Structure formats: C-alpha cells, structure tokens
Amino acid sequence: MGNGIEDPANPFFTGDSANRSNALEIEPAVARRFDARDDAADQPPSMAKIQVKWGLSSYSGVKGTVHEYNWVWDGGGWSLVSSNDIPQGLVGGGGWTTSSGYGGSNNSIGDAMGNAGQSGSWVDASGDPFYVDGGYTQFDLPPEGTYGPPDSTPDEIGATGYTSYIDKSQEDWSGGNREYRTVRSAEGRQDNDLATIFVKSAGASGESETACTLTIPAGSSVSEDTIAISASPSVVNTSQSQNAQPIPLEFEVVPGSWKAEVAAPNPLAKLSGLSGLGSIPEIEVLPAPAKTMIMQCKVRPKPNGNGASKAVIRAEVQKWQLKISQDVIASNGGEFTASNGKWTYSLATVPCRDGDITDAPIPQPFQDLGDIKEIKASDRPAWPMGLWLDSAGTWSISGGTNIGKLQSGKRDETFIARVYVENTATHEKQYLKWLKWRSSWNVSLTATANQNGSTTASYTVNGTPTIKKLDEGEGPGPLPATADINPNLLWKPSL
Length: 495
Known about the structure:
There is one protein chain. The protein has helices at 109-115, 310-317; strands spanning 20-26, 33-34, 48-73, 78-87, 97-100, 123-124, 130-145, 160-184, 194-202, 208-216, 227-231, 251-253, 259-262, 269-272, 282-285, 293-301, 320-338, 341-347, 352-356, 364-365, 373-379, 383-386, 388-389, 404-423, 429-449, 455-461, 466-474, 487-493. It contains two helices and 28 strands. The strands form four sheets. Strands 1, 2, 3, 4, 5, 6, 7, 8, 9, 10 and 11 form an eleven-stranded antiparallel beta sheet that branches. Strands 17, 18, 19, 20, 23, 24, 25, 26, 27 and 28 form a ten-stranded antiparallel beta sheet that branches. Strands 12, 13, 16 and 21 form a four-stranded antiparallel beta sheet that branches. The protein is mainly beta.
C-alpha cells in the first residue's frame, strides 16, 4: 500500500496491486491533432498540454474490542449463557495517525476517504500512463486475556464462570483521485481546434477500457470537459482483511442431545367451539396442545486448527446461525366431506418447502467456538372443520334448511424436518440431522343439534392412523425441496 506521500511534479501513485486501481493513458497515435490553417503564416499552431489535479488521503491505527462471556456448568461441560462486546476504539497508546496529500486534515476514516476527493491545484502532467490507487490492509495483533470457557471443572451443576479477552487489529486505509484536462499552449497560433484522446482502464489488471476525448475549440484555452479517475476502498467495520479467504468451519451435534419422537395424540380429534349458545361447533383433528412430532438437539462449532487468530475465527463463527426447516416430500391431499359438498386440499408441487418450524426463537446465532446452541421444533398438521356447512362451505352455527352435516375427513402427508446451520454472508448450509415422518388419518363423524342450540357429535376412526417416525439420519436427507409450498383449498358443492 502507498504511504500517502506524492511528488506534485510526478503525479504517479503505485499502490498494492491487490487493491483497487484505475489508470489513464494517452493514445499515442492521436494524442494531439490540429487543423492546418497555417496558410501563408509562418507561425506554427498551438498544441494541447495535459494538466492534472490530484489528492491522496490515508488513515491508520489500532482498534480493539473486549469480549465478555458468562458460562454455566451443565455437568458435562461449560455452556455459554450470555456474552457482551465492548468496542474500545483506541488501544495500545498513540491512537490513530493521519496523513494526507492535498486532501486537508482528517479526524476519522470517513474524513480521510472523503477528503481524497478534494484535490489540489491544476499542474502540468508528465508521464504516461497516469495511475491512481486506493487500498485497505489489516492484520491482527496478539489478543489479551482468557479466550473460551473457564479451565475449571466445578463439582456442582449450575456453577457459573466468567471469561474475557480483548482482540486488536492494525488497519490501514488509503484513497486517491486524479482529474485531467487539456489546456492550449501559449505558444503558437490560437485559432486551431485541438483534441486529445485518452484510454481509460479500470482494475488492477486493466480489465476494462474506454476511450475518452477532450477537445479545445478554436479560440478557447481549456477543454470543455475533464476526465476523472479515482480509487478508494469501502469503509466498513471488519475484523479481517477484505482480501482474506473465509475460515472453513464445521459443526456437530453434541452427543446425547438428539431427540426425535412422533406419536398420534389421544384422542385423535376433539370438539371445540361449544362453549355457549351461538358459538360455531367444530371438530379439530390432531388437536392442540398435543404435538405429533417433536425434535431437538444441541449444536456446537468444531475446533478449528488452521492457525488463524482467535479474533478472526470468532468473527467467522458469528456468521453462522442454527435453524430447523421442514419439507413436504409426499402428499395424497386431504378432504372433508359433508352432506352438501366437499372441501379438498392439494399441493401444486411436491417436494415443497413447508417452512421453519420451532418452539424456540430462530435463528440461533453462534457467538464463539465454545458456544453451544440448543434448538427445539414440533409440528401437528391439524385441520379444524365446522360440523355444519352452508352451500358455500362456510361454517354455520347449527343444522337447518340447506345446511349440510359434516360426515368424514382424511389427510395423508409425509414430511422431512432438517437441522442445519447457515452462513449469513455466503448462505452456505451444513445439514446435520434429518427426520422423516408421516401423518395419515381418516375419520367418520355424526353430529346432532339439540333443541337448546348446542351440538353433540361423535366420531369414529377408520383404520389405524399412520402418525409415526419413518426414518432419520445425518446430513441433508433425501428429496430436497425445490419450490415453496403452494396449497390449494377448494369447496365443491354437491350437484
């Protein structure tokens, strides 16, 4: 990276080639062109000269953050309870130092990058081509304090512990700009048109090029337009170099923490909405609060031995989140049949994404290598339906003229629930566990309206409900979904 100092007589800045750079060069074949209006006169025509005004700013210093952790002993290891990050701003003494070319004084990184665009005066340019660079470099300094969980092994479950450490990094920024114009030489005749063609390239290797022309009409002394090239890195809060490669991480399920259960509720269905006169009676298959599927586990990052600093690894760990999602991989649809029509349920595409399912807040973000996250999920693909339906399939309070009575209901679907971690920056996913299960049932119903307006009903289960675990394993599992769920509910009245 450049040191922020330039010689006005030689406006070149050769920075780190890995950083962003732009370049400008004069096209040799057409660098200067003039109209030969010199008939009998012995005075030569004037020529075009290139002028530049330029500026450069840089900013460097040491930053740090204190990381505090509160732990609890669960009998087998330390689990992270809470953490707190306290930015220190300036550490190590001396604070930030600044330097600038013609950009003025700088009190912050933002000032330095903004001032890079405040160039000095126009000066004659020499040299070909003309470069401008901007860059950012960072390197970690040794951390101070205790990293990770406590080293002690308490005798009692529930014992608490505290650790903290501070990480520090050296950061250096630079940015610059150039603006070019052409002026007419004082020597020679002033009534000729002048044109200078430049080739403008962008990128450290000149990946793209464009031609730019500056003209000076006869009688004018300065080109009508200017050409500007600049380079400056983005000012972002980061704990590692913008050029650094991602730190590879792997995650694992804590042994003994995986639980996956599927069972039919008892009873399979129940009546509701019968609390008083005028309420709408309904039957709910797979009623609350019973859960037909329950899964949970604890997940932690695996130790990484690639030699990266603790601060860099910690920043990478914090990009990952723990989630549970579910897909429908098979569906025979469902229906509720009444004496005057039928409600049907179907899916447009199978397999399809059923969505995130959880009993705990998701996503669960990781904080550090010692962090263990626990996630729980449950599901019950319930289906409530009114016992009395009008000609449009709308639930009614009680039986009456042109009101149909519910007679039967059924539904059959197969699901896969998946535990995985996702990188919020790259959207990379690592699948850890999966559970395949099925929910299939068929019920017959009878309902009677009493004279006081309440409703009594009974139901029978046809066959044996298939609400059970089919399979489970590690990784992503079979049949990944490629589309979002798109259910279709349709009422078909009897003819």
